[in-house]
Amino acid sequence: MNSKVQSLKDFLGQTGRAALVEVAATKGSTPRETGAFMLVSASAIYGTIGGGQLEYMAIDKARQMLGSLRPAPLGEFADVAAAPHPPAGTFSPYSDGEKGDSRNAGDPLSPSLRGEGKGEGLRDAGKMFATLDVPLGPEIGQCCGGRVEVLIRPVDAALEQELIAKAEVEEAHLPHVYLFGGGHVGQALASALALLPIHAVVVETRAEALEGMPETVETRLTPMPEAVVRDASAGAAFAILTHDHALDFLIVAEALKRGDAAYVGMIGSKTKKATFKNWFLKSADGSEAEFNRLVSPIGGNAVKDKRPPVIAALAAAEIMTALVSHATEATASSTPEKAMAD
Question: What is the 3-state secondary structure (H, E, C) of the chain?
């Protein structure tokens, strides 16, 4: 398994100089939230701050900055003027309804470029920064209507370690999705889940069915997949689509008996679901309330297309929605005063 943290380390280790482009503050409707970031090198990028002209402008400024990072006799960096560092997460002053601010008077389309350059060449690269304060309007070909401030700074050794440490913490707290079955739909669903901010685990009893899985997806080979359900973390999602209906039933029964699961879904028809219900209530000591938490067929039945990639796309969206909803409910229940105030 090649984790997303490892992908970040690989980028930082293989691209040479890089700049961190981070959304420092937002106002109104924007493509990404505060804290979203990307890394830019001379020839590659990692991540995104939302695409569009805003991202193109940020990439261009980042590469200008990287191009100016060279040792100089006075320890200054090209094209960057000395200025105080802007407070993190705040906008430079401007009034609602104005197209620009005091720095861009007469030119509302020109984003600001500021920075510190006093130091000793590359050793003080971390003191250099630039900001873009951009209204997302038709002037730049975007109609979000909001405003974004982007902070751009070179990645030095300390910032690199900070980024990796933050990524490791985030990865450790990703919601887990357990996918049981590596058949055609399982392969397609694994590929869809690999793109999402989750920790996906494909569980199989057949070694050959785990071949070709995305490298960011964990795989587990076990003769008792239902045992994986018992050991799963709270708030996990379970998608069951094995090659054996009886095995499906065992896994689903285990998952439904966990009251902390964010999602329990099973591939199949109305007949399969009815057969499972009869078995679950009569032979597995299940309850109606537990059964009613089952999502089957996974992905819903609004789209009458049973091709694996279609089922996978619908199921991935369904699982992600359930995970977000479960997390929101968990947060609200842990802060009752805030929930009541809202």
Answer: CCCHHHHHHHHHHHCCCCEEEEEEEEECCCCCCCCCEEEECCCCEEECCCCHHHHHHHHHHHHHHHHHCCCCCCCCCCCCCCCCCCCCCCCCCCCCCCCCCHHHCCCCCCCCCCCCCCCCHHHHHHHCCEEEEEECCHHHCCCCCCEEEEEEEECCHHHHHHHHHHHHHHHHCCCEEEEECCCHHHHHHHHHHCCCCCEEEEEECCHHHHCCCCCCCEEEECCCHHHHHHHCCCCCEEEECCCCHHHHHHHHHHHHCCCCCCEEEECCCHHHHHHHHHHHHHHCCCCHHHHCCEECCCCCCCCCCCCHHHHHHHHHHHHHHHHHHHHHHHHHHHCHHHHHHC
